[in-house]
């Protein structure tokens, strides 16, 4: 097994655990942590692909992913604070009234 | 293929990978939100260690500064601010179906990645590839100028949105 294989396996595992966390957890904050884990797995694959092809494309995309993740986390956590003030909980089941 | 990536993993890489896998499992299995947030931070640090190990020091530093240093700390801050209780973090029922679905997705993703890796041209095998901040910034600002500006606008919009949300005017009537 080479380092490339090891990193690919770790990336696939981290992405899958992130997906599982996003689908399974009741709390909105922990579901968002699952999204961050998924993005982290994608970042690993992008960096490795860039290294394999000897260019900076993968690394550039990773920088954009990190930037989007930071903006997303800041906005999502602000929205969670508003939702907590309004509903008194962050359990996703209690937000069914938002469906309209 | 990159020299480091084509070699057998070092002990450091095995340890960093094991920590990444372990901490990501803790994020899923723990019912304590603080433990989840700290485990997320551990996963991000372990991933940064992997970046350092394969020679991409710039992204490793950015990962520690932005991801682990800002985003994960923001998670810890929000969890402590809202005082989330562990019993509300239990998983939803019907876990078996999701578990099997995610296992299939993980296996398919790993197989697809391995097939892609097998087809990667290896004519540059053995040559070291170090991506320094200097040549990376030259590449980034010459190929992604427009996207970089758009990303700056996105961050600006996110800051404005977060400030507006934090002021707490949403859902309240204006007192005139």
Description:
The complex is a heterodimer of chains A (100) and B (176). Chain A has one domain (3-99): Orthogonal Bundle (Helix Hairpins), CATH 1.10.287.3510. Chain A is built from 3 helices and no strands. Chain A is mainly α and 100 residues long. Chain B is mostly helical and 176 residues long. Chain B has a single domain (3-131), classed as Four Helix Bundle (Hemerythrin (Met), subunit A). Chain B has helices at residues 3-6, 11-29, 33-53, 57-82, 95-118, 133-143, 145-166. The model of chain B has no long low-confidence stretch (mean pLDDT 80).
* Major pleated sheet of chain A: none
User: What fold name stands as the CATH topology of chain B?
Assistant: Four Helix Bundle (Hemerythrin (Met), subunit A)
Using only C-alpha atoms, the radius of gyration of chain A works out to: 17 Å
How many structural units, i.e. domains of chain B?
1
Q: Can you write the helix and strand succession of chain B as a string?
A: HHHHHHH
- The average pLDDT value of chain B, as a whole number, equals 80
**Top-tier CATH class of chain A:** Mainly Alpha
Report the total helices of chain B.
7
User: Total helix count of chain A?
Assistant: 3
In the CATH hierarchy, the architecture of chain A is Orthogonal Bundle
- Estimate what percentage of residues of chain A fall within beta strands: under 5%
How many domains make up the 3D coordinates of chain A?
1
SSE-based structural type of chain B = mainly alpha
Radius of gyration of chain B: 21 Å
Structural class of chain A: mainly alpha
Give the largest interface. A-B, 74 and 89 residues
At the third CATH level, what is the topology name of chain A?
Helix Hairpins
Quick one: how many beta strands of chain A? 0
Q: Tell me what portion of residues of chain B adopts beta-strand conformation.
A: under 5%
What general form of chain A does the structure show? elongated
